[in-house]
Specification:
Blueprint: H1 11-27, H2 30-34, H3 36-57, H4 62-88, H5 94-120
Helix pairs in contact: 1-3, 1-5, 3-4, 4-5
Length: about 130
């Protein structure tokens, strides 16, 4: 297994970035862009998911890493809920909704698996090395 040296190398961060880009594209649509509250909430959630993965990587300890990955997973849940609202308000099509919902479900599963891996890992982080 290759050593990951940067958060950009993490598959979960890459997937979160894809979701952030999808959200950005969807929220530029005319009707969606005019619902300032929902637009800003879903953009914030998608940015938070991506940023918390990056921040967690730089924390240098597994417990903090897990905590921030869990926060990121929560943000992914928020995006899914907000996607339902966008679909119900007819800001996005059924196909767009399904794409975003599926991307979120995939990332949530990957984050859960990564969290479980870290919980079982003997490696505790660089700040615990002697």
């Amino acid at each position: 297994m290759a050593t990951i040296k940067r958060f950009e190398d993490l598959e979960v961060w890459q997937k979160a970035r894809e979701i952030c880009n999808t959200v950005s594209t969807y929220t530029q649509k005319y009707d969606f862009s005019r619902d300032f509250t929902l637009r800003d909430q879903i953009r914030s959630s998608s940015g938070s998911a991506m940023d918390n993965i990056a921040e967690s990587f730089k924390r240098d300890g597994n417990r903090e890493f897990i905590q921030f990955l869990s926060i990121s997973k929560g943000s992914i849940g928020e995006i899914r809920s907000q996607a339902y609202r966008a679909f119900d308000n007819k800001y996005i099509s059924e196909e767009e909704f399904k794409i975003l919902k599926n991307e979120c479900l995939i990332l949530s599963d990957k984050l859960g698996a990564f969290i479980n891996y870290l919980k079982q890992s003997e490696i505790k982080g660089t700040k615990f090395k002697k």
